[in-house]
Design brief:
Blueprint: E1 5-13, E2 16-22, H1 23-32, H2 40-53, H3 59-73, H4 86-95
Antiparallel strand pairs: 1-2
Helix pairs in contact: 1-2, 2-3
């Protein structure tokens, strides 16, 4: 059986950032998606994920479709790296 895990996709959930890193987590997310916000994009993504689960669609393509869905919905989080301590640490070491 092939892996259904992939590099994490970050998204906004109320007051925190969440991460989705598997096909099962995408299905869980889609199950929770409000019915009044479902439409063609939702249906297309759900079909692609089902096809991926059945081995008929590449996982990388399902991941990319999910990322685009989140972006279109305005919940895709863009987090660039963690805090930058390099300069601070080098400065403190140089002054010691």
């Amino acid at each position: 059986m092939s892996s259904t895990r992939f590099d994490p996709i970050l998204l906004h959930r109320k007051h925190f950032i969440d991460e989705i890193s598997s096909l099962d987590e995408i299905f869980d997310f889609l199950d929770e998606w409000p019915e009044d916000k479902r439409g063609l994009a939702y249906d297309t993504l759900l079909k692609a994920c089902r096809d991926t689960a059945n081995g008929r669609f590449p996982l990388s393509a399902a991941r990319e479709n999910f990322r685009r869905f989140l972006k279109m919905a305005g919940v895709l989080a863009k987090v660039e790296g963690g805090p930058k301590f390099d300069g601070l640490m080098n400065h403190q070491v140089g002054n010691a």
